[in-house]
Amino acid sequence: MTAAPGSPKGTAWETLAPWEKAAEWHAKAPHIADEVMALAREQACHQRQLELDHARHQRVLSTRIWITQLITLGLSIVNMVVIAILAWHSIDTGNFVPTLTMLGAGAGLTAGTYGVSRSIAGRGLSALDTKEDRQGTGA
């Protein structure tokens, strides 16, 4: 930390509260203190804008993950309906064992696809949360 103008090193400068440091700076070098305060205000505005942009970005990503999960669920249901229709037709033609194989494989693949999509979405959300935690702690 830089000492105030005219303050010798090893003083209680480090223990002063920020507003006390600002008051001391302003008393000893008002032109520098005004510049420093202007820079601090500008930095605070910039930081706030970055936080707002980050929050908006997180909302957009969360919405996209949610939409992707809905699409995956819908396609999985459509896939199971198609498999059921094909199995029904196959049973009508007298092919019972191939029908069971088709139903089992189709249901397994559909459930696997849905599970993988949920896993990917979960990892995406947890990565977003982890990134927010790191930024929140200053790391």
From TrEMBL:
The keyword Transmembrane applies. It comes from the Bacteria. Keywords: Membrane, Transmembrane, Transmembrane helix. The chain crosses the membrane at residues 66-90, 96-116. The keyword Membrane applies. This is DUF2335 domain-containing protein. It comes from Amycolatopsis balhimycina DSM 5908.
